[in-house]
From TrEMBL:
The chain crosses the membrane at residues 12-30, 42-68. It comes from Abyssibacter profundi. InterPro entries: DUF2970. Pfam families: DUF2970. This is DUF2970 domain-containing protein. The keyword Membrane applies. Keywords: Membrane, Transmembrane, Transmembrane helix.
Length: 73
């Protein structure tokens, strides 16, 4: 199935987000990985990876604070 962007177009923002999230959880498809390595810009993935990591850590910290507050600690 041909993509709407063409074969040489760089991955869209949402494709980049999806690739980073999939790689973050270890479920990246070989097709997406191949697309990322051939058409993507490395710094897009580095920046998005840092953003996803910061959000993940912030959510975990928030959950810990919520649990400690509910537990009365």
């Amino acid at each position: 199935m041909p993509s709407a962007q063409g074969d040489d177009a760089p991955p869209s923002f949402w494709q980049t987000v999806g690739s980073v999230l999939a790689a973050f959880f270890g479920v990246q498809s070989s097709r997406a990985r191949k697309r990322d390595f051939t058409r993507g810009q490395p710094w897009h993935y580095v920046v998005m990876g840092l953003v996803v990591t910061i959000v993940f850590v912030a959510v975990l910290a928030g959950l810990v604070r919520l649990v400690l507050t509910v537990a009365g600690v």
